[in-house]
Amino acid sequence: MLLYPGTIDLSTTHLRYVATVVRVHRRRIGSRWRRLSAGQQALLVLAHLRNGDPYARLAAGFGIGIATVYRYIRETVHLLAARAPTLTDALRRLSRHGDNYAILDGSVIRTDRLAADRPFYSGKHRHHGINLQALTDPRGTLLWVSDGLPAAVNDTAAARHHNIPDACRQAGITVLADSGYHHIADGVITPYKRVGGGHITTRELNPGQRVANTALARVRAPGERAFATLKAWRILTRVRCSPHHVTTLAKAIHTLEHHPHHQG
């Protein structure tokens, strides 16, 4: 077997944060001895999430069994996911910063096809996956990631399922979104769309509508970084575990993007 050195493009702040989470958990459950220290377990998990390193490679690199790698990763990912901000947390943070609007976007995280997974097939994207919704602040900071839904659920249905429009309206937050959320609810601003198709004569947008769409796209642009931020963690480029685990992975990654820099 050949071994090679690797790097993880993260700061030591992430490592210290995850190690602290693991260390606190071990004390709470009374775990006295592990094959890896809390710091080594944290490093293993970050290598898996950031670089997408598979269990077999991690087992060889850390000198432990594949089953142990699996247990360490699952344990830590669940601990991190439990610390992810809720939708209510996100809306409170917007209010604290004096922001009166948020940017909503959705994405389908690709998964391997499994038996009986037809609900997870996205006709739009032509692959199996999980639909995630995300809210960002006006500067593009990721505030909240939803639970996953099968990819066959479109963005409008997903946003309604998670009660995003109503929650934002009650919090006094306007939502900016793309045309996939057209007419979803009052308080959600989407681009103007051309009228037409089928037997209806197509009506082009007038100059004012085109200008409005351009302005909206410019304001929404920072929000498009949210999923780019998530997918920078290579484990989400193509998930090979159960589709139901995508939610846990995404929320764990959101915690790593949010808490280390805000709570130390």
From TrEMBL:
The keyword Metal-binding applies. InterPro entries: HARBI1_dom (IPR027806), Transposase_HTH_dom (IPR027805). Coiled coil: none annotated. Residues 34-85 form the Transposase Helix-turn-helix domain. Residues 104-255 form the DDE Tnp4 domain. The keyword Metal-binding applies. Its cofactor is a divalent metal cation. GO terms for molecular function: metal ion binding. Keywords: Metal-binding. It comes from the Bacteria. Pfam families: DDE_Tnp_4 (PF13359), HTH_Tnp_4 (PF13613). This is IS5/IS1182 family transposase.
